[in-house]
Amino acid sequence: MTDKQTPLQKRTLKDFIAFIIAELKPRGKIFTPFNIITAPILALGIILVVYRLINGLGSVVTEAPGFPWGIWIGFNVMVGVAFAGGAYVLTFVVYILRSEKYHPIIRATILNGFLAYVFYAGAIFLDLGRWWNIVNPLIGNKFGVNSVLFLVAWHFLLYMIAEFIEFSPAFAEWLGLKKIRKILHSFTLGAVIFGITLSTLHQSGLGALVMMAKPNIHPLWYTEFIPVLFLVSSVFAGLSMVIFEGTISTRVFGNQLTDDFRRSYDDIVLGLGKTCAAVMFVYLFLKALVLIHGANWSLIATPMGYWYLTEVVGLTLIPCILFLRGFRDRNIKIIRMAAILTMAGIIINRCNYVFIAYKWYVPLSERYIPSWQEVVMALTIVFAHIWVFRWIVHRMAVYRKPPAWTIKEDRHAA
Amino acid sequence: MDRRTFLKRIGIGMAGMTCGGILAPGRLNAQGVAEETEFLSILIDTTRCIGCRSCELACAETYDLPIPDIEDDSVFKEERRTTETQWTVVNRYETDKGTVYAVKRCMHCNQPACVAACLVKAMKKEEEGPVTWAENCMGCKMCAFSCPFEKAVLETHSPTPRIRKCLLCWDKRLVKGEIPACVEACPTEALVFGTRRELLEEARTRIYQHPDRYVHHIYGETEVGGTSVMYLSAVPFEQLGFRTDLGTTSLPELSTGFLYAVPIIFVLWPAFLLGVHRATQKEED
Ligand code: SF4
Ligand code: SF4
Prior knowledge:
The complex is a heterodimer. By secondary structure, chain A is mainly α. Chain A has 16 helices and no strands.
């Protein structure tokens, strides 16, 4: 892969189209194991998406009366958005606290966050029975301003725009648009502040979303603090995702990494691990308070109670300790393991609110269990995200150094 | 950073705040429908119900739903739930006091969770009380997720699904001044129609006059902040398949705290972030 984008100063439209077409072509090896596994799933998934949009939800989704939401909302939307939390946390650290340490991974994280919103917030679309009406809350075919979902929907949209602006300088570099890059670059701080505010609100908003369903949610999970718990957990969910994503990206995109990046990478991961541990500690503290306050001790010794302990002890407390150990011993492996456990914990936590601890009293035979089509489509969304991410990393300055002219320009601007 | 860029950045922050003002909730549903208007209601006296299912038939005829075979007793074998084609279902329960029939449908809550949940106001609490649905719905199922009675049901097997549930005959009969079809069809007057206030009085009178016949509770009087469909029973309501753990707070109130906090955060957070950003600025900038 050669960096061939020496920006052309004066470009005709024809050159531009030729450039885009050239860029659209795949780069790198085509028959990698990852591609061989994901391509068929993607193909099948796309067919299923079209099929579902034409024939209605019932054609692919498990019918479980009383369980309106399944893995698309529980896993794709709720978990996807929590995992995308890394972007707002790191933009806070890098642009607001001006920590140079995390600068090398900021672009990848923002890109990942942006794509996560496009694909995972986009997963809502799949779950909409009347998807052609998706624009209604935006164009004002009645504003349900009292609805938490209304707020979340708007925030998703605005946040996507904010994240796109944060990432857009890389886009402009790719296209060699110097002037436009300069303008976009000057928007960054505004977009960051706006984006962090939006994130705070919709990460907690996703929690507030389930609050009205209080009678339907197991008392061990229901508390008035759900929005706070969602917000706090999005911090370590997002950072764990950054660690996990980095593990893979540093291997796959190894040839793009700058020396700077290699040198500082271990420190970055250690720092992220330490932050995760601290935030998880706060989260666990809150969880304990809620449990004591709710006086639900007796429920712990029930099957749902064991499930609760699996989530809170097995997949939050233990990774929290692992993060600490990993940080103390400077052991990246342990931190990675902790990140994976944390992510599993988040998946279980979010799905609990949507369909596991939701209507816990319904016997197993009548419960929601995803159909294979739902699983394929859920995976399709994840793989589509990864494919687009890879496509962009290969073409734009995500991990590698931005083109030389930008550095000169930034210095000039500062 | 010179002053101009700084001002520009402030400007962006301000734009964000105004946006927050627009997007933040104005009047909250919990407040909006809480004023005790005279909601139209149905009182269901389960001690009078004979399980004839005439109401099911009347409902299906009014709304062009598949006509049920009301002679068929086998439907009582299992407790049925309302579906997209059966908006009112009679169930049979074996209780301490023998067989009791109870008819279930949307409760037309006073402060409905489904209405507060809807992001396009497709679910609507009419001023007269019925909870109705409109075509601008997105099918997000947020209403179904929030309903404590599992009564908002999306037609899954249709490419153009609608939320289907009892509408209290709002569009077909109430607007014409007629009473709901099920009430009219009931041969034993197990169902009576009136304003909520009248019906509560009627229910209390019945309990007062026959203290041994009824448990001293009107289901729906206070459950989730009160409902417009209310029940009388001879046996504790658990035995008739009712949830008795719902509490008396209206469900929309549970998320108002969050919604109130939104505009505040929207104003304070950007200002705070900008402040921190300025504070961390290095000298040479
Ligand atoms: S019973 Fe359910 S669907 Fe009916 S008004 Fe109440 S919340 Fe809405
Ligand atoms: S499914 Fe329709 S009626 Fe129900 S909350 Fe969503 S948009 Fe509103």
